[in-house]
């Protein structure tokens, strides 16, 4: 797993907008985590989900038919005193197993990240239409074409259908005993906000999603990744809550410079440091292919490309860093 050091300039891709990085404190304080060393060591724990297995092919894997990838197995030393530890469903036994392990080690906590990719957006259709090279070289820099606009790209009807499939899959797994997310975090881009809204519609338990600026797609140049005003988001999605300090305007998108993979990795590693810093064990993050790629990389999980609308659970161990480990 990647453990980034602190960055004096946390957003080097913004050097054109902020040529003097000392101007960066003008950015919202919610982004200050980008400038400090990580508090936690976050590492993927293999052996619980099929997506960990190198023989599982991402191109053919079906998360719906495979119970989100949960491996059917017995867990060693299942706690006799915990409900469902030995006689419950696979998900119930998994939850009891994680509960026992967390109770046994106060210095290391296990958490499950449910990473969901947004459904198909109009920009995905446009990239297929023009081909990746022409899309990257020209069309991604435009606001749209004769077929429509893709600034802060919206879902297509196919994308909404993919989110509905995820909704049905969640309800099926709830019937099988899957632990519900205790926290819901969502990218501020419209396609993720709508995907999460559809995915968790009618799911039991409180759905109180928090919009996280750092959870967004690779930043810069591509207009599909420029977010809307906070006031516009609030009007369309009144049930969502903004993290503290969320700015009205998009301060992170730059028309001239594209964020590098390394910079995106650092951003998502900092985002993880933020979201694991509470007592929650099960955390939902609705995001993008690039963001999810970075999450998997920085925790040491194998690369696993998700189709639009798909979900991957990742078990991670979380330990607080000590000065000697930084």
What can you tell me about this protein's structure?
It is built from 8 helices and 9 strands. The chain is of the alpha/beta class and 326 residues long. The chain has one domain (12-119, 166-325): Rossmann fold, CATH 3.40.50. A 7-stranded mixed β-sheet has the order 1-9-2-8-5-6-7, sandwiched between helices. The protein has a two-stranded antiparallel ribbon with strand order 3-4.
Mean pLDDT comes to 90
β-strand amount:
5-15%
Structural class: alpha/beta
Total number of strands: 9
Number of helices: 8
Query: Any idea what the radius of gyration is?
Result: 20 Å
Distance between the termini: 13 Å
Succession of helices and strands: EHEHHEEHEHEHEHEHE
**CATH topology grouping:** Rossmann fold
Strand order of the largest sheet: 1-9-2-8-5-6-7
Which outline best applies?
globular
Percent of residues in helices: 25-40%
CATH top level?
Answer: Alpha Beta
The figure for the number of domains is 1
Q: How does CATH name the architecture? A: 3-Layer(aba) Sandwich
In the predicted model, the low-confidence regions spanning at least 5 consecutive residues are none
Instruction: Characterize the largest beta sheet: strand count, sense, and whether it forms a barrel.
Output: 7 strands, mixed
